[in-house]
Design brief:
The complex is a heterodimer of chains A (206) and B (93). Chain A is mainly β and 206 residues long. In chain A, 0% of the residues lie in helices and 50% in strands. Chain A has a single domain, classed as Jelly Rolls (Sandwich), CATH 2.60.120.40. In chain A, strands 6, 7, 8, 11, 14, 16 and 17 form a 7-stranded antiparallel sheet that branches. Chain A has a 5-stranded antiparallel sheet with strand order 9-10-15-12-13, with no helix packed on it. Chain A has a 3-stranded antiparallel sheet with strand order 1-2-3, with no helix packed on it. In chain A, β1 and β2 form a beta hairpin. Chain B is mainly α. In chain B, strands 1-2 form a two-stranded antiparallel sheet. In chain B, α1 packs across α2. Chain B is elongated, with a radius of gyration of 18 Å. Classes of the chains: A mainly beta (206), B mainly alpha (93). The interface between A and B is medium-sized, with 34 and 32 residues.
Chain lengths: 206, 93
């Protein structure tokens, strides 16, 4: 036999509110209380975001320098950062020939960084973050450039892009190089400090 | 620049593309040494250590010459003397 208990407030034996309903707002507990939920807390059937906030963060870099032409993609020598107290959260990105695959769907902040070296002046040198939403055709989603007025100089460029990864099989990214004229650019890399790399942070659900 | 950076740049200037990398038997900057070079491109032979060191020295000499040309070029600008091509390149690109 079912029964219905009608009350706006439930209190403990000392008269302190445990549950209170007022103008469609339900308050559980009171300031100073600990509310311990055994089981899964849901929002209308969906999982509630973790109270820890960020659930995935990962960082990759290339471990060596290379001379790359205008329009080339960085396809080799990628590795997860592994020095200087590096830490990661959640599942890692996976990478094959410079194409990065996400561990789960979600909204991701992608930060690309490139350090390059030139022995001659360049009208521009920089890099782009390229995305695909069909695992086939890539378009430039973000880019950054520097102008180098004389040779034997270093350049550093940084890009940012927020990517809605609705499918881990179709939504991927890679990094490409832009440099003026036919002159090549040395894209720098290293094994102990991140010169050229990409940072991935999952901001939330898609 | 560090010696590791010079080594990286010297190798990068020897061929285009991402033709080389480093063995990953451990982590850190000491991976970046001649002994740990791995060649990705089958059409390229690993250079000798003498060749690599010569390339590093060439890089350093070019930088020194570039810095020198900037210095002498600035001095010539002040006195109204004609600049050499190297000095023009060093000062104005």
């Amino acid at each position: 036999m079912t029964s219905i208990l009608k009350a706006d407030t439930i209190q403990d034996s000392s008269g302190n509110n445990i549950i209170n309903e007022n103008s469609n707002t339900i308050t559980i507990g009171a300031s100073g209380d600990t509310t311990n939920i055994i089981g899964t807390l849901q929002n209308n059937g969906s999982a509630v975001a973790s109270t820890n906030g960020i659930t995935m963060a990962d960082q990759w870099r290339i471990n060596s320098a290379s001379t790359l032409a205008n329009g080339a993609f960085v396809t080799a020598n990628w590795e997860q950062v592994d020095t200087d107290g590096y830490g990661t959260i959640g599942s890692a990105m996976t990478q094959s020939s410079g194409v990065f695959t996400f561990p789960s769907t979600g909204i991701y902040l992608i930060i690309g960084k490139m350090v390059s070296y030139m022995d001659a002046a360049r009208l521009y040198v920089g890099h782009g973050i390229y995305t695909t939403t069909n695992d086939s055709s890539y378009t430039q989603a973000a880019d950054a450039y520097n102008g180098i007025y004389a040779g034997y100089a270093w350049s550093s460029t940084t890009t940012h892009f927020i990517f809605d990864v609705t499918s881990t099989s179709t939504h991927k990214i890679k990094m490409g190089i832009w440099t003026a004229s036919s002159a090549n650019t040395i894209v720098n890399g290293g094994t102990s400090s991140t010169e050229t790399g990409i940072t991935f942070v999952r901001l939330g659900d898609t | 620049m560090t010696e590791q950076q010079y080594l990286n740049l010297a190798l990068a200037k020897m061929h285009t593309g991402q033709w080389f990398g480093w063995k990953k038997d451990w982590t850190g900057s000491h991976r970046e040494s001649y002994e740990n070079i791995i060649v990705h491109d089958n059409s390229i032979t690993k250079p000798t250590e003498v060749e690599v060191n010569a390339k590093i020295q060439e890089l350093k000499d070019e930088e020194t010459a570039h810095t020198s040309a900037r210095t002498t070029g600035k001095a010539k600008l002040k006195t109204g003397e004609a600049l050499t091509d190297a000095e023009v390149e060093a000062l104005f690109g």
